[in-house]
Design brief:
Blueprint (H helix, E strand, L loop, with lengths): L1 H11 L11 H31 L3 H9 L1 H27 L3 H28 L1 H6 L5 H16 L2 H15 L3 H24 L9 H26 L14 H32 L5 H35 L3 H28 L1 H6 L5 H14 L3 H16 L3 H24 L4 H4 L2 H23 L13
Length: about 475
């Protein structure tokens, strides 16, 4: 039966996958636009979620904001692992090894489930101490522990959603991934006010309602992603029959996945460190949380662009098509930088209006307006840096991305922020972001030149050296 499935798969893909023949600029738009739209919807509901919570009080908004490091860690583990699955799977499909691709997919699903179980334990045992380390305000601790525990214990949706959406992306089916993310976001938007404020006969649940709305949207999106893979994805045959974890394949997934996990997890450490630095500056913690909600509206489309770019590069790398890899990289940089320039303009022109969305009192505006205008200067360099980092991952050199992230966030941003905080002027702290991004720009360019010399220039040759 398995042999028959493999034969059928080869018949289904006997014509070249579109990632190997469609003009790269059109392909990049086709692959990325659905993901950009769906991630914009996600960014929208992240902002709306916090807007609803801010109507409870500022402490509730601060509690949800302080959960960001753990939530970022969940996304880092689920998304980073999925990046490894995506890059390995796309390269394997480019090499026409369909049976191996099925096995890679099943092993990827297995390790995502194991990862989720780890976060169940974190939600139960770590949530309380985590909040106690960041704030002395009892109400913030109470709100936050409730919110974070629910998000972790019931967080199976984020792991399965991420995994099965990446399987769709690996085979070029980004439209279905857009549907799953969009539906999940809409469910979250609908449930947020209903559960937070107790509408239509539901009990008023406050921040617990916000958490339940979040995980409910993720679970529904995950179910849809599973259904689409089983019914629409003809290049993969997912089955538990005869499945055994394969250590060698899991290791290959993590060769790209672990650097990506570490890279994103470093963002969690940075956020936690910034919250500790900002604790002495009153509402600055809340402003920092608001900034992260707002910046997601700019960064999410770039991440969506990357989600479309990575399988294109990985596929054509496996297929030995150097020109298509290069043209995809160039187009991605142009689009990412353009998106970031729009973000700079918006935050420079209307920072007060953006912060005002969160029911901000005058003291919050006084801190927040200069914060947004300063931090957004880092966007001028961030678009290029994000694309370059994803190029490294697509070519199987995720360790370069990891090094850049460590230098930017742990070696530059946090130390500079701490030194500026000693002045007692919170406005100086925000300058650590553009300073750190300049270091990221320089290091990313250095690695790109190196990887072009050692890998990209050799694509299509019978043998290629490694960086």
């Amino acid at each position: 039966m398995q042999n028959e499935n493999n034969v059928q798969q080869e018949k289904n893909v006997q014509q070249e996958n579109k990632m190997g023949v469609m003009p790269t600029n059109r392909l990049l738009i086709t692959m990325s636009l659905p993901m950009m739209v769906s991630m914009l919807v996600q960014a929208m509901y992240n902002i709306v979620d916090s807007i609803f919570v801010s109507r409870i009080n500022e402490y509730a908004l601060r509690a949800v904001s302080l959960a960001f490091p753990i939530q970022t860690l969940m996304i880092a583990v689920s998304g980073g692992t999925a990046v490894g699955i995506n890059a390995f799977l796309s390269k394997t499909l480019g090499e026409k090894e369909y049976k191996k691709a099925n096995t890679i997919a099943m092993n990827g699903i297995f390790i995502e489930i194991v990862s989720y179980l780890v976060f169940v334990l974190i939600g139960i045992f770590v949530s309380g101490p985590f909040y106690a380390s960041q704030t002395q305000i009892a109400q913030v601790r109470e709100y936050g522990t409730t919110y974070l525990t629910i998000c972790c214990v019931a967080g199976v949706g984020i792991f399965m959603q991420t995994t099965f959406e990446r399987l769709l992306q690996s085979t070029g089916m980004t439209f279905y991934a857009m549907i799953t993310q969009g539906v999940g976001a809409i469910i979250n938007l609908i449930l947020d006010p209903v559960l937070i404020f107790g509408l239509f006969g539901f009990p008023e649940m406050g921040v617990a309602g916000a958490a339940i709305a979040t995980v409910a949207g993720q679970i529904v999106a995950a179910i849809l992603a599973v259904i689409f893979n089983l019914t629409k994805n003809k290049e993969l045959t997912l089955s538990l029959r005869g499945f055994r974890p394969a250590g060698s394949l899991i290791l290959r997934i993590y060769q790209v996945g672990i650097p990506s996990i570490i890279m994103q997890a470093i963002g969690s450490v940075m956020t936690y460190g910034m919250n500790l630095i900002l604790e002495a500056f009153g509402s600055a913690q809340t402003v920092f949380g608001i900034y992260f909600k707002l910046q997601s509206f700019i960064f999410m489309p770039v991440f969506g662009l990357n989600n479309g770019m990575v399988p294109i590069i990985a596929y054509n790398y496996g297929a030995g098509k150097r020109d298509r890899v290069i043209s995809t990289i160039k187009s991605s940089v142009v689009y990412a930088v353009s998106i970031m320039l729009v973000g700079v303009l918006v935050m420079e022109i209307m920072p007060g209006q953006l912060i005002g969305l969160f029911d901000a009192p005058p003291e919050l505006l006084a801190i927040g307006i200069p914060a947004l205008r300063t931090i957004c200067l880092s966007f001028l360099f961030a678009g290029y840096c994000i694309v370059v980092g994803s190029v490294f991952q697509a070519l199987g050199n995720g360790v370069y991305s990891m090094i850049i992230s460590i230098v930017r966030q742990l070696c530059v941003l946090l130390p500079v922020a701490y030194l500026f905080s000693l002045s007692g002027n919170v406005d100086l702290i925000w300058w650590s972001f553009p300073i750190a991004e300049l270091f990221s720009l320089s290091l990313g360019t250095f690695f790109l030149v190196r990887i072009n010399k050692n890998i990209i220039s050799h694509i299509g040759e019978s043998t290629a050296t490694t960086a």
